[in-house]
Design brief:
alpha/beta; D-Maltodextrin-Binding Protein, domain 2; 2 domains; 6-stranded mixed β-sheet; 12 strands
Length: 300
C-alpha cells in the first residue's frame, strides 16, 4: 500500500509538470533510511529558497519506504534531486550512466568526505568482537545501502575468514538503518550493520551518521550498544541531480545547495542530518570503486 501511494504521488506530480525546458516543479526524493516524518521535517526548509533560486512554482518531496523507490524515480525521471549512499548511485549508474550526475558531497569537520560501516550488538549480549558473533543472526539495513549491505559483503569476509553465509546462522534486512538498530536492541538481530563517521565520541554516536541521528532524537543510548566491527572508509553519498532537467536548472540547483551552508547553515545541517560543514564538488570518478564493488556483489 505504501509503495502504491508513493507511485501514485509520482504520477500526480508528472501530470503537473512538463518534460520541456520550462520546469514548474522540482521533486526531491527521500530514501527509507529513516522514518518518513523525520525525513520530511528535516528537508522541508529547502523548499522555499530552492523555489526562489530556480524560479519553479513548487518543490515536492517524495519519501519512499525503501532506497529502491528513489533509485527508480531517478532512473525514470520522476525524481529530480536526492542525496543517497554511494551504492544507490552505483545502482543508477550501472543501469543508466547518463541518468543523473553526482554533483556535490557533504564534507566533515576534518575535511574528509567519508564514513564507515559500524557493526553493533547489544552491550549486554556478551558479544565483544567478530569471533563472538559466530552462528548468530546478522541484520543488514537495506539491499541498496552502501554501509548497510554492500561494503560489509565486500570487506567482512576477509575479516571473518569465511563467507558471511557460513559464518552466520541467519541474515536478513532490517528495513532501513533506524529500524535495523532498533531490531538489534529488541533482539530481532544479534548484530547489525549501520553507519557512522567513526570520529568523535562513541557516547554521542560519533559526529555524523545513523547512530548520531538516533541519539539526537532520543531513540538510542549508546551505552546499550557495543561496536563489533568498523569497515574501511566509504565515500559519502552524493547529492544527485537528474539529467532530465535542463542544463540551466541543473546549474541553479547545484549552486543553491553548494551555497546553502553559507545562506542558511541551520537548514543545511538539517537537510544533511547534521555534523557536516559544507558541500564540495563530487563526480563519477569518486565512486568508481563502489560501482565496481556493486557490479561484483549485486550485479546491477
Amino acid at each position: 500500500m505504501i509503495r502504491k501511494l508513493f507511485l501514485a504521488s509520482l504520477a500526480l506530480s508528472l501530470s503537473t509538470s512538463v518534460f520541456a525546458q520550462d520546469v514548474n516543479v522540482l521533486r526531491i526524493g527521500l530514501d527509507g533510511g529513516e522514518n518518513e516524518s523525520d525525513q520530511l521535517r528535516r528537508a522541508e526548509c529547502v523548499a522555499e529558497p530552492l523555489k526562489a533560486a530556480t524560479g519553479v512554482s513548487e518543490v515536492q518531496f517524495f519519501p519512499s519506504p525503501d532506497y529502491n523507490g528513489v533509485i527508480q524515480g531517478l532512473l525514470g525521471g520522476t525524481i529530480d534531486i536526492a542525496i543517497m549512499g554511494a551504492s544507490s548511485y552505483a545502482a543508477i549508474y550501472l543501469q543508466n550512466p547518463d541518468a543523473v550526475d553526482p554533483v556535490l558531497v557533504a564534507q566533515q569537520q576534518d575535511g574528509s568526505t567519508g564514513y564507515h560501516t559500524i557493526m553493533v550488538a547489544r552491550s549486554d549480549s556478551g558479544i565483544t568482537d567478530l569471533a563472538s558473533t559466530k552462528d548468530m543472526k546478522l541484520g543488514f539495513a537495506d539491499p541498496d545501502s552502501t554501509s548497510g549491505f554492500l561494503v560489509p559483503n565486500v570487506s567482512l569476509p576477509n575479516d571473518l575468514g569465511e563467507a558471511i553465509e557460513t559464518f552466520y546462522s541467519e541474515t536478513g534486512f532490517g528495513g532501513g538503518h533506524e529500524n535495523l538498530v532498533l531490531g538489534v536492541l529488541d533482539g530481532t538481530w544479534d548484530v547489525g550493520t549501520t553507519f557512522g563517521s567513526g570520529q568523535g565520541e562513541w557516547s554521542e554516536g560519533y559526529t555524523t551518521g545513523n547512530l548520531r541521528i538516533m541519539v539526537d532524537k532520543g531513540l538510542l543510548d549508546m551505552d546499550d550498544l557495543v561496536e563489533v566491527w568498523k569497515s574501511p572508509v566509504i565515500p559519502n553519498g552524493p547529492l544527485m541531480v537528474s539529467n532530465s532537467l535542463p542544463a540551466e536548472t541543473k546549474e541553479q540547483v547545484t549552486a543553491f545547495f553548494m551555497d546553502l551552508p553559507n545562506t542558511d547553515f541551520e537548514c543545511f545541517d538539517a537537510f544533511t542530518a547534521g555534523g557536516y560543514t559544507k558541500f564540495v564538488e563530487a563526480g563519477q570518478p569518486m565512486y568508481q570503486t563502489i560501482i565496481d564493488a556493486r557490479k561484483s556483489v549485486i550485479g546491477s
